[in-house]
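Two entries, shown back to back:
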Amino acid sequence: MAAHLVKRCSCLLREATHLAPALAPVGQLQFARVAHKTLTSSATSPSSCSPNFLKLLEKEPVFTPYPEQQEVDQLIKKATRPEELLELLGGGHSLHHNHGALILIQLSRLLSQKPQDKALLLEDRRFQQLLHLVSSQVTSVWHGTLVKLLRSLYALALPKTTRELQSVEQEVRWRLRRLKYKHLAFLVESCAASMQTRYSHELLAELLVHLERRWTEIEDSRTVVAIMVKAGHLSELLMTRLEDKCLELVEHFSPEELRKVLVTLAAQSRRSVPLLRAISYHLVQKPFPLTKGTLLDLAYAYGRLSFHQTQACQRLAADLLPLMPSLTPGEVARCATSFAFLKWLNVPLFEAFVQHILRRAPDVTVAHLCSVLLAFARLNFRPEHEDQFFSLVRERLGPALASLEPALQVDVVWALCVLQRVQEAELQAILDPRFHTRFVGATSPKDRSTFQKLLHINATAQLEHPEYRGPLLPTTATAPAPSARDQKVTLLQQELREALQALLGSANRGSFDVATQRRGAARR
């Protein structure tokens, strides 16, 4: 707006010079009067402008047009060695204000795969001359070239205190308000990681503010996904805005963009139900093909966010079944774990998992078997060929069980208890006081979860294995912890307690107000 106003005033002043007499002082006074009158009437009545004014305004450009392609532009594009670019500085070429920046951008591209040459380049006298040239002309560099220049300087690993780098960063900060949103998106996509870890935190903060304020300017799905992946975790407000924009553009998302959005939400544990529902709807309705990697990532994201959408899960399972021969044992374990977290069992798919593990037994590691076993336990899934499967489990896990981490040992034996395949030796190893003491009275959430599984194992040894003679958890460890006395009891809780006491017939047969890990005071 300011540039347009300045241009308009200059055009009016030029016209006034043609109307005013020249040379004499009186002429100068008349010139001033005419100019003032012309400016005043033009500001109050746009229609009062003469046709000459309008033609002049149409012919006068507001910005300097981009220079036409020159021979040096082709030399920069075709250069294959840094030496060819540095020779352009002293070759008698006519370099305009963008050429220095373009040479630096091309240098970073050529050296992107040669990190050992970057240190030598920084010491080159011609490179220092190039930096000085760019710094002196940075105010004339075009917007698109400027943001690429900053990315290139970061890629060349210039020291943070380099004066030329600070000059470019400052110029970018001054221009943030004028940059198009696509330039802001390019900056955050290509430079956010460098700004956060090594370079200007102030520039990154201002960039995020502009992205937050101008989020309505996003017009395409690629931009919103790229910003969400690169900068969504840096700003809670920006992430919320991007989720709203995703809801608006989700129907235009490709399978890869759907995958990136879901994985980003899972990485940040953001359970945005409206967005997850919209993604699931388009995932089910659109017949686009999904690759193996996309299917595995989608299953992981749904499992991580505990978002159970039956139709989407059915689509994932149906698309995974034909791809089963191409899965590795690690991918099978990962997929089984994802569906287990969803508490969703597709019997044909899990039977295919078992057959795949049995066929690829030599390639299956102990870690893979542990993951699959825990997934089966969470879903209480017992395969059709369970004898063959558990024979493989005994063969691979038996010798290695004692060498696993203590928490993982508890997980494995707990899974065997759930699937009714635990043996006495395994119970004795886990319930040995020298083993379980580390988990009794634990305060961390992970250790408390492990202790809950120890209680399950202890109950299995007592109730499902009459021949088992010990050891067991101490009575003090299995006694229910009392809840807070000042906890308010609702009418429903009171009636439920009375009904349970009447059903059990004796207070010794049940424990009430037991503080559990997830639900506070519970009945057992």
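entry 2 starts here
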Amino acid sequence: MATVSIPACTTALLLDIEGTTTPITFVKDILFPYIREHLEDYLSTHWEEDECKQDVHLLKKQIEEDMRQNRACPVHAVDQTVHTDEEKAIREVMDNVLWQMAADRKSTALKQLQGHMWRAAYSSGRIKGEVYPDVIPSIKRWRGQGLKVYIYSSGSVEAQKLLFGYSVEGDVLDLFDGHFDTSIGPKVDSKSYERIAERIGCPPEEITFLTDVTREAKAAEDVGVNVTVVVRPGNMELTDEERAHYNLITSFSQLELTGRV
């Protein structure tokens, strides 16, 4: 198994989750189906609570923004089973959430609601966060070498903390120095990585970003962030050009910090 060097100038590692620390199947086959199956019950139960009201408010703002940008939105058909204003409002929220999920949207509004729903599932033990076996030992090794470790995921910071706080390896949150989500900007926008570097307090050149998505890799690379692309089962196939351009690893254990005195 080939070793890939972490640049000696690196002071911080920035990790993606889906397809990087965690199997894509965990998200697609466990987390997302949980939302679809429990959405109506969750909204009906928590509709009058402040947290749920805030989630719905954010979703409505997202709908307004989509309409301003002339983006497609779900069409609300007349449903004879809906009788009250509350039922109608809940059905409209459900339609929008399910439509965003089907379109693989990464909106902050969607991710916030999902995070709040997953919290109950994690805390009750119905779901445990999956991480690849090489992840935790490698992070411990990197931290022992003086590196800081951060997460940057399209999932909300709360959802990230739930995954690692209720993981199959137990609560491993103390291994991370911070978390970022799309509230700092989209993962395919170079400016997001500049903001993260500013927040961490180091130049982009001192960050090494691990992701399975080459569009994210390019956005980070464009502002000077070092990039390694993670190849895991089920991840999107890379082109020959991408394979030639990026450092590739199939396991975190391949990454070694070299050249530092």
